[in-house]
Amino acid sequence: MQSLSGGNQQRVLIGRWLTINPQLLILHGPTVGVDVGSKDTIFRIIQRLADDGMGVIIISDDLPELLQNCDRILVMRQGRIVATHAAEDLSEDAIYQSMASTSKEVAQ
Fold it and tell me: Per UniProt, which keywords does this protein have (predicted)?
């Protein structure tokens, strides 16, 4: 597997997990270290899985990538969810505001 590109390595890993037919797939940084073309391919695979009814959670600090590919973003701080943004209010400004606010401010 070491001879594969970063994108192909990620696809192999996702494929391995899919062999057990999970109901939920949790991916941490699924596109870290891969080229742009592989990122698109990986997110097409993830979207197809979600369209087929699989739950998908992506943990990432790549905000532009999340905004482009997710229908909901949760902002966490110190292990707690401090904000939830649905598709209709997904914007960099809204997310950054949630990240910068205190838990008390976000709850209001």
Answer: ATP-binding, Cell membrane, Membrane, Nucleotide-binding, Repeat, Sugar transport, Translocase, Transport
Residue 77 lies in a domain: yes
> pTM of the full predicted structure?
0.75
CA 26 to chain centre: 9
Q: Based on C-alpha coordinates, what's the Rg of the chain?
A: 15
Q: pLDDT tens digits for 29-56? A: 988 888 888 889 889 989 999 999 999 9
Compute the distance between CA of residue 39 and CA of residue 35 in angstroms, rounded to an integer. Answer: 6
Tokens found for residue 85: 């943004």
In contact, 95 and 74? CB cutoff 8 Å: no
Identify the sign of the CA torsion 34, 42, 89, 61: negative
Evaluated on CA atoms 37, 43, 47, 50, the torsion sign reads positive
